[in-house]
Amino acid sequence: MLKEEKDLLKELALGNKKVIQKLYTLVFPKIKNYVLKNNGGSVDAEDIFQKALLQLIARYKTRSFTIESSIEAYVFGACRNLWLRELKIKSRIVTKDEIVALVSEEDNMTMAILEQEKRELFQEKLHDLSDNCKQLLELFFQKVPYKVIAEKLGYNSDNVVRQRIHNCKSQLTKLIKNDPRYKKIKDV
């Protein structure tokens, strides 16, 4: 993280209105556009943006962390993840016959922070893999068929691709489980 990014994060946590306005100017239009394109409205976008800023501030105040990209990219990613989570919750809207346990806003925020930490750990460990494994797993996560992966990367068959993907997933799992943060996240 660049020094200026650290300063922005610190100033955001201190409630610096200029930093908050800068983030609104740079990031909010992208968030609003994303939410509007994904079954939401302007009010939803505002709520998600506020939650993401609160999440960022809460994380900064409770434990140090590093933003690997720009703060704008981080806030956008956090907003996207929060919105996807919100859509998932909304998709579970109940009929008259069902009973729903509503989660308090604080619990919801805690879960969102935890999910963000999990995603960050996953991305960091994915980055630690060999270029070949990263390429294979990225194609796999994009649901590219094995046959297409074999052709694209020059493997003899889709069975070889399956085996390589399995090995790469095993390496990724091992890297994640060997990280001390995994134990903390897993136990929550």
From TrEMBL:
<protein>
    <submittedName>
        <fullName>RNA polymerase sigma factor</fullName>
    </submittedName>
</protein>
<comment type="similarity">
    <text>Belongs to the sigma-70 factor family. ECF subfamily.</text>
</comment>
<dbReference type="InterPro" id="IPR036388">
    <property type="entry name" value="WH-like_DNA-bd_sf"/>
</dbReference>
<dbReference type="InterPro" id="IPR013324">
    <property type="entry name" value="RNA_pol_sigma_r3/r4-like"/>
</dbReference>
<dbReference type="InterPro" id="IPR039425">
    <property type="entry name" value="RNA_pol_sigma-70-like"/>
</dbReference>
<keyword id="KW-0731">Sigma factor</keyword>
<dbReference type="InterPro" id="IPR013325">
    <property type="entry name" value="RNA_pol_sigma_r2"/>
</dbReference>
<dbReference type="InterPro" id="IPR014284">
    <property type="entry name" value="RNA_pol_sigma-70_dom"/>
</dbReference>
<keyword id="KW-0805">Transcription regulation</keyword>
<keyword id="KW-0804">Transcription</keyword>
<keyword id="KW-0238">DNA-binding</keyword>
